Amino acid sequence: MQGGRRDSCLPDAELPVRARSRTRPLLITFSGIDGSGKSTNIATLTAWLTSVGLRVRVAAFWDHVVVLPRLRETLTHKLFRGETGVGSPERPVQRQDKNRRPWYVTLGRCGFYALDAIHLRCLLKKMLSSEEVDVVIFDRYFYDQLAILPMEQKAVRIYARLLFKLLPRPDIAYLLDAGPEAAFTRKPEYPLEFLKQYRRSYLLVRKLMGGITLIHALPLEETSRKVAEEFKKVGICAPDHTSAISNAHRYSRTG
């Protein structure tokens, strides 16, 4: 194979064969503060992987992993009287949940997160032993749970390290960075000061856990290129980003 970026990658025609020859599916995760672009980049990546013949499963952490989600949402709503729903520039909401950190809430979260970790371990054991999927993509992962906790506290960091030992490390873990001001503009759900603190917490989680690829706030095409660069490390060539973004818009409308 001659020159260019394909030296370390397989041709598209061979890509599904290479992926299916692995001992298990690839595990890819996307993390980041609200409004950092996780859903858009997941759609872009999923559209491309599907177009080259790979079987992709996308899982949302809150929908597929979190234990007793309705109970937890009801408890926080009754306790803090915040609004529910997803905010938008046209219809902002004032949520009161993960931005509240009194000690008793942190203690309760640690208990629930332990249950989430056990459930995630069981779920991943099934998903990663499946012969019907080549790539598993998580919209948020356990990193996002840890970022809600006061990671500046030593006891919390010890708890995080112990709990994470239960879980498999992703083959590729992305942390999509975003300026708090820009994220607040896209999703005005939480106070700006909390988003600044939340971002710092994500960076602490990245430093503590290691192995997380940080992608700084960039235009969509550049972010997609950075995401794809990590795939070269597992032998998968980067897609044509223009077509991938176009495919992502079609994918988001149809699936």
List the helices and strands and how they pair.
Blueprint: H1 15-20, E1 26-31, H2 38-51, E2 56-60, H3 61-64, H4 69-80, H5 103-127, E3 135-139, H6 142-148, H7 154-164, E4 172-176, H8 180-186, H9 192-209, E5 213-215, H10 220-229, H11 241-254
Parallel strand pairs: 1-3, 1-4, 2-3, 4-5
Helix pairs in contact: 2-10, 2-11, 6-9, 8-9
Task: Give a brief description.
The protein has 255 residues and is of the alpha/beta class. It is 50% helix and 9% strand. The longest helix is centred in the middle third of the chain and has 25 residues, at 103-127.
Tag the structure with descriptive keywords.
11 helices; 9% strand; Rossmann fold; globular; 50% helix; alpha/beta; disordered C terminus
- Give the count of structural domains: 1
Q: What is the CATH level 1 assignment?
A: Alpha Beta
What's the gyration radius in Å? 19 Å
In total, the number of strands is: 5
Tell me the overall shape: globular
Strand order of the largest sheet: 2-3-1-4-5
Largest sheet: 5 strands, parallel
CATH third-tier fold name: Rossmann fold
CATH architectural arrangement: 3-Layer(aba) Sandwich
- How confident is the prediction overall: mean pLDDT? 81
What is the succession of H and E elements?
A: HEHEHHHEHHEHHEHH
Strand content: 5-15%
CATH homologous superfamily placement:
P-loop containing nucleotide triphosphate hydrolases
What percent of residues adopt helix (DSSP H or I)?
40-55%
The residue ranges in which pLDDT falls below 50 over 5 or more consecutive positions are 1-8, 241-246, 248-255
Termini separation comes to: 36 Å
Q: Compute the number of helices.
A: 11
Coarse structural class? alpha/beta
